[in-house]
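Notebook entry, structure prediction.
Reason for the run: the old model in the group folder had no record of what sequence produced it. Starting over properly, with the input documented here first.
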Amino acid sequence: MDATRRVVTEKIGRRGARTAIAGIAVLGALALVPHPAALAVCTQGSRTGSYDFNVGNSNAGAKGSFGGSAEYRSTDCTGGGLAKGSVSGTVDVLLFGKTIRALTVTAQASATGSPSSYSSNASLTIAVGPFTLVSKSDPHYLSWSKTYPITLAKASYSMMVGPVPITIEATIGVGLEGTIELRPNYPVQVSASLAGWANGTAGGYVDGAILRAGVKTILDLLKTTLASDIALYMGSASGSVKVIFEPVRIRIRAVAERRSCSWKGWSLKCSWDEIAGVTLVDYSLASYTKTIFTF
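New structure, fully documented this time:
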């Protein structure tokens, strides 16, 4: 009986020792895992977007593209801290088969490093037609605020309207107004409210005793605003980039008219009646807003 008790006791003793050793090993492994608060946390995010538009047609219209991007990264991420934002836009005018660059805007601001020690830069390019209004970079601050209209293009188009030949003369003006601010110092900011427009006039007239021709036009090709209020920290961001379009109305119609006269009592009454017409473009678009991206 005593021998049996000794054997059982020895087995229990050995099992207990193994359990104790395993428990110590588990505790040792847990001690090697750092507390979650001690772990470096990488916070990062990005947004990008673009929007292409096309109004009117090749005889009279406008097309272009707007875009924007934003990226942020905390100092605990691979590559270090980053805050970077940009907006851009181009507009082309279409007139009697020709494509003419009207507006160009490219803006960017960035900071890399950490909130207490970083390097920064801002770059800005703005052009209206063939004229570059600003093209420079600066590590601290850039801004532009101005109204700049120009006559962009003049063109003509000859055609037959019924039996009458006519040449349509068109003039297109474009312009840019508003403000843009780039602050690459922490936090990085890209703020803009830039409105661009394109409009014009067109005319042509052939007068005769019996036949005449003329042109009826509306050339409100484009008025759009690029709006941005991006603020970027190394770990978070806020704001949005939007494009706001105002109503568009484009119409070029050439008509030929014949003079007809008749006696009304003792008076000769004459009037002009349309006998032929050619519509080169007839386009309209209501106002709307397009969001490129938002945080």
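Summary: The first strand starts at residue 44 and ends at 57.
The old model has been moved to the deprecated folder.
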